[in-house]
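[job 4471] stage=fold_predict status=RUNNING
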Amino acid sequence: MTDILEDSGKLLVLGNEAITRGLIEAGVRFASTYPGTPSSEIGGLLEKIAEKVGMYFEYSTNEKVALEAASGAAAAGIRSFAFMKHVGLNVASDPLMTLAYAGVDGGMVIMTADDPSAHSSQNEQDNRYYALLSLLPMLEPSTPSEAKEMVKDAFDLSERLHSPVLFRTTTRINHARGIIEMSSRKDTVQKSDFKKDPRRYVNVPANARLNRLKLLERLAEASRESEESPLNYVTGDSGVGIITSGVSYGYAQEWLDDVSILKLGFTHPLPEKMIARFLQEKEMVIVVEELEPYLEDQVLRIARQNGIDTPIFGKRTGHLPRPYEYSPDVIKGLRSLVPITRDAVPLEKPDIVLPNRPPMLCAGCPHRGTFYAVKKAVGKDDVIYSSDIGCYTLGIQPPYHTADFILCMGGGVGAAGGFSEATDQKVVAFIGDSTFFHTGIPPLINAVFNQHRFTVVIMDNRATAMTGHQPHPGTGRVHGGRQTNPLEIEPIVRACGVSFVETVDPADIKNTTDVMRRAMEHDGVSVVITKHPCPLDLKKKKKLNVSIYTINQEKCIRCYTCVQKFACPAIYRQGDEVFIDPILCIGCGMCTQICPKGAMEEMQ
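[job 4471] inference complete, writing structure tokens
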């Protein structure tokens, strides 16, 4: 997207693209991430344009490393940006808490992209509480356009306070589209010298105690900034007040009639005096926010501390739901308290019942070959499948059912150790190549150290596939005129002390099955690396050689093994016959290995 590099003009862009433009205009010189939806598009865009705007950008091995790298750059005096999805901040929370004590010299903004309704996540945690926990300032935009401008405000605020600033978005901000107006780029420090200050940056207990006091001083200054910030403002004049922030502001503004809205963009610390004045002026107040009652609880406290008895409604009173993201229908549930602007016009629905379409592994996905081989090797044995976060999480779907327990990135291998000691069942742990580098190595070392007994399957499809085929240490990377060579997984596994390590191609189902049988018979930790590139990535790089397959109906005996046990979406049953969709088939040939009569044939 070259237009985003222009010096002026208007663009219709994705929220993440708007934020990226904001980084350019803010003069950011260092950016780091581990990809995770809904934040991934920022990294994809920076990978293409960072060098052109004088910015260093890296895909770090995990979010903790991304935050640590950005904090080093900020401590040296240059503007840095670390970004991740909400659960990524859990991984980065260890350095975050001490970084809050040390502060920064160059502006530093940390974006947490929350995912209400868990569209692409294992939970919908509300990361506003990280601002409370770390005592760091936090800003929240409501639209893509505001996100572009607010990320610049966040850097200015960071430099005034010498503090990192949390920048919290949600899926409907990151993935909405809006018009932005581009402005000039700020000229900031490109390179700098780190000024040593051990009392500030080396938080041994004696220094940490003093820095804790400085953190509280910065928080007090942030409170004063919040009271005067233009990011917090009131619209409308009514006895009914709405206090809101983020995307909820859009819903309230569009659907609630004859109300006065206190729109909060600077949400930690809150402008308590401003909120108290707003409460005093209203007959009633409704707090509209997604997920937890973060704002509502603080508004209730502010009212109590100031002796204000204005009725306050929200989640605590049962008028708004606590789970999931909001919609016009949720806001219309407030009609008992406040007039609704209008009713939505119902759409005419066709009289057709559509089948459910659950997420599934793509046609030609090498993980399908791995799961088929594992299940064949397991047979009727009682096996616990301890899985992880990635495309292979879809192994939970039939016919494979290869996900019995999932926690977080790297958690599959760690939990497998516990299962192996707590039960007599066999245990198979699945983990992807990118996830292995992210947080898979420590639990593997732990398993060897503690002499656990289970099999790890490292599913190496040569990309961080789930979030858009970003590079990782196992793929290598070309960036900034430099090329990094890929790290091979097998030598790293052997260096961890694992004695049984074999690499297979999961497209060779027979060999993969044989190796899996031997791996599960091994007394100790065994590792099987299933190595085959993701076909979607090959297709994107124009490296996919497609040979389309069809089914010879004269050879087919209608056993339906291909449909019921292999379940490639390109293979379907119509009546008693089975066919291959030539549009979906990518010619991987795995189905030819599972047909007992060799009915799958390459089209001529």
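[job 4471] summary: The mean pLDDT is 92.
[job 4471] exit 0
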